Amino acid sequence: xSKKQLIMESALELFAQQGFDATSVQQITEHAGISKGAxxxxxxxxxxxxxxLIDHFMLSLISDIDHVVKNHKASxxxxxxxxxxxxxxxxxxxxxxxIFIKEQSKTPNEELISKIHQYDKLIDNIILxxxxxIYKDEISRTRYDIIYCVKGFIHTYSHLILFFDVxxxxxxxxxxLAEKTAxxxxxxxxxxxxxxxxxxxxxxFHVHVTKEQLLEMVEQKIEEVEDSTLKESLDLLKQQMxxxxxxxxxxxxxxxxxNNHPSCKQIAYLxxxxxxx
Length: 277
Description:
- This protein has 277 residues and is mainly α.
- It has three domains: 3-44, Homeodomain-like (Arc Repressor Mutant, subunit A, Orthogonal Bundle), CATH 1.10.10.60; 48-202, Tetracycline Repressor, domain 2 (Orthogonal Bundle); 211-275, no CATH class.
- Helices cover 75% and strands 0% of the residues.
- The chain contains 14 helices and no strands.
- This is Transcriptional regulator.
């Protein structure tokens, strides 16, 4: 385990017990058994650590549901696969999901609020793309209302599973919510969230990861991974971002290499978005 991973896991344990604000860098370093100097070699501050944890969780969720939506036929089964991927991610990262849900409702940190809204907008785009693929013009008036309904399903049922220890039958839950979403799409006539209102609500927030930031993330991931195939794939994709020379088929193959390894799925999503493949 790398020192950065050790810090993140130690911080997770303390954040779960005490929350973000009540946990100090000193407590994290003592819990991890490292010096403060070692902490600051990995993270500039506690806020950067928290942002790193949020990035890890949200990118895992987004890459999982985006992969399902882009690689599944536009049918009713796509809704089922979408919900299954979303709840599987919450289950896989249940420790941080609990902290994330608790803390985002009370944080006064504007940077953190902005980051959460940025990821929320990415999720909206994936859901909207999925709904348009399945229902096309049938939901032209209600599509934005349904986005909020789908996110409401995810939030409410995740809260139920994470905080009330309700046994998770992933198949039944996903099937149930897919059916409910289909009913809304096929039979809703009255809409509350109009297109104009939706864009007004989302106007202040702009999702943007610069190429320079992404290149830094790729460099860091190259240092973290041990598998030679992953290292080579990351290096070739880094060069492609700097000076394109590879065919789209080769780029897709390299991204697929990353997608097949859980630790690289998030960076694969960002690279794919940057290279538009």
